Amino acid sequence: MKLQLKNAGAASEIQLSDAAFGRAYNESLVHQVVTAYMAAGRAGTKRQKSRAEVRGGGKKPWSQKGTGQARAGSSRSPIWVGGGRTFAARPRDFSQKVNRKMYRAAMQSMVSELARTDRIIAVESMELTAPRTKLLIARLAELGLTRALILVEAYEEKLFLAARNVPYVEVMPVASLDPLSLVKHDKVVATVGALKMLDQRLGGTP
Q1: pTM for this prediction
Q2: Which of 50, 90, 100, 147 is deepest in the core (most CB within 10 A)?
Q3: Residues near 170 by beta carbon (within 8 Å), at least 6 away in sequence
Q4: Pairing between strand 188-191 and 148-152?
Q5: Cα radius of gyration (the chain)
Q6: CB 5 within 8 A of CB 124
Q7: Most distant CA pair in the chain: distance in Å?
């Protein structure tokens, strides 16, 4: 798999392994992994009180007969204001099991599809001379973009500071790349160093 470097001349390209960037797209696997990733991010800490846990309600509100009102045994019945919940929510774990082999295959499938559809834009570098939003917007405009995921080799303070106030633009080092970020952005701007590191992390090159 070869990717042409943007704004770097006709002969400038980067060679990537087919093992990482030439995999067939597996939609069902990608869906499963993305769903599992989103589910793992849920807190699952919701907690409600059942009828047995709310305070009060020990005495029968009124007599069983003779009042003209409906029968009531407790003021903490679920149909009363202040009563307990019928099916009270409990803390739960929403995580789904996804093994390493499935996760890696899904990531390979996603980056391969991005490369195959020309949605990965390879650049030599995305370094900025100053942490200015204006500079980043101008740099993206040179690539014909207004929104994208910028994939870099490591944390770059100027770039991160310049991008944090730009809507639909996210800067992420390769080590923090996740499935949701890949499916959320239509275009990925990746530096040469980031692509080589990603190739290595996905098992393409030793």
Answers
A1: 0.81
A2: 50
A3: 149, 150, 163, 181, 185
A4: parallel
A5: 27
A6: yes
A7: 96
Would you state the structure tokens that stand for residue 125, as one six-digit string?
């570098």
Assigned token pair, 40: 């793992």
- Return the pLDDT at 169: 96
Q: Give the span between the Cα atoms of 72 and 83, in whole angstroms.
A: 12
Question: Collapsing DSSP states into helix, strand and coil, what is residue 70?
Answer: coil
- Give the per-residue pLDDT at 206: 43
Determine whether 50 is exposed, middle or buried from the number of CB atoms within 10 Å of its CB (0-12, 13-18, 19+). middle
Structure-token match 């980067």, residue found = 14
Q: Which CATH architecture has domain 2-43+97-201?
A: 3-Layer(aba) Sandwich (3.40)
The amino acid present at 203, given as its one-letter code, is: G
CA distance 150 to 140: 10
Mean pLDDT of 65-71: 94
Closest CA to 132 of 168, 167, 157: 157
Q: In 3-state terms, what secondary structure has residue 116?
A: helix
Domain ranges of the chain: 2-43+97-201, 47-90
Q: How distant is the alpha carbon of residue 69 from its chain centre?
A: 54
